Here is the input.
Amino acid sequence: MSFTRERVVTAVRPVLFASAAVITVALIAVLDYATGPSLSMAFFYIIPVVAVTAVVGRRSGYAVMAASGVAAVVSDVILPPHFSQAIKKRILVAQSLYAFGALLCLFDNAWSIGFIVLVQLNYAIAPRFRSRRMN
Here is the structure.
């Protein structure tokens, strides 16, 4: 097997593209941490996953998807100290539910999309219950 320049370039190009996507995920995580829970960067994590899946392939897309999930959870859970434990716990539960919804795509895409939409609706429009103080 001879190593021609064309073979080396075609072998290195996907690795460089996937590496650039992982660096992009890290930058998005830093921005996500900087904005805090007031502004969600969840949509932007999808962009490198779609790009790598389209250009490099499905396996690399799975790897970048896993890196995006870990980065999103870490950037949301490691919040500045002035946020309460209740907010951190709520974020951790929501991210866990989204991860479960993403894993449902291994079973069926329709179940996965339906579950994620239901979780999103729960957090967007669910009624808030206030605790009643006993006098």
